[in-house]
Amino acid sequence: MPRRIESHWLPGPAGRLEALLEEPDGQSPRLAVLLCHPHPQFGGTLHNKVVYRLARGSRAAGAVVLRFNFRGVGGSHGEYGDLVGEIEDARAALGWLRERYPELPFALAGFSFGARVITGLGCATEGVRFLLAAGFSTRLGGSAHLEDCAVPKLFIQSTQDQYAPRAEFERIYAAFAKPKQVVWIEAQDHFFAGALDRVEEEARSAIGQCPEL
After folding, report:
1. Integer CA distances (angstroms), 169 to 40, 59, 160, in order
2. Mean pLDDT throughout 179-206?
3. Percent of the chain with pLDDT over 90
4. Shortest CA distance to 133 belongs to which of 91, 167, 164, 171?
5. For a pLDDT cut of 70, what percent of the chain falls above it?
6. Phi first, then psi: what are they for 203, rounded to 5°?
7. What is the phi/psi pair of residue 44, to 5°?
8. Do 85 and 13 contact (CB within 8 A), yes or no?
9. CATH architecture designation of domain 5-208
10. How far apart are CA 155 and CA 163, in angstroms?
11. Per-domain residue ranges for the chain?
12. Which long-range contacts (CB under 8 A, 24 or more apart) does 133-136 make?
């Protein structure tokens, strides 16, 4: 049974949102994952290579994955919302995903700016199974919301991330609430150059090991 791939237009707070829904190969989904892309003002889209690898790893572990373009990106309506608007876009997309799969537990994943979005949304949303934040930047704003966030959190970080130098990340990570985990991947830059296979495997492992699934 080949996986189902569907294009959708989701209702968003600034107009329609362009989205792609993918179910896992050869099995019924066991988890629903909302996946957010990097910064809209610097070329980030749902087709970003890190986002694609996170999606593929998630599907391999049995997740149905919804990727979408933030407002003003691709075919999505609206203009850049300075993170606040993008969090609201993600909230709307998550609502659509949960209505589509009401019986499934759900998790949030994101890369770079998208990691900021999903931690901002996920820490304030009941029922989130876990947060998977790849390339969480230390230079895109504060992180106080993570200091009392009880949602399980997995961070996947590059050892050579120019937007999250290891010493800077470890300093803020120390203050994050448990449960939490960080996986360091030997890569060439923020975009995990030379290590995308490892990013994909970590996403697969995170979902495969998620308790009670």
Report:
1. 23, 28, 12
2. 97
3. 91
4. 164
5. 97
6. -65, -45
7. -70, 135
8. yes
9. 3-Layer(aba) Sandwich (3.40)
10. 14
11. 5-208
12. 133/109, 134/50, 134/54, 134/109, 134/110, 134/192, 134/199, 134/203, 135/38, 135/50, 135/111, 135/161, 135/163, 135/164, 135/190, 135/191, 135/192, 136/112, 136/164, 136/169
Distance, in Å, from the CA atom of 148 to the CA atom of 70, rounded to the nearest integer, reads 27
Segment 22-46, tens digit of pLDDT? 999 888 999 999 999 999 999 999 9
Report yes or no on whether pTM surpasses 0.90. Answer: yes
Q: Residue 94 is which amino acid?
A: L
Residue 2: its pLDDT value, please?
59
Residue 126 CB contacts under 8 Å (≥ 6 apart), including other chains: none
Other beta carbons within 10 angstroms of residue 185's beta carbon come to 21
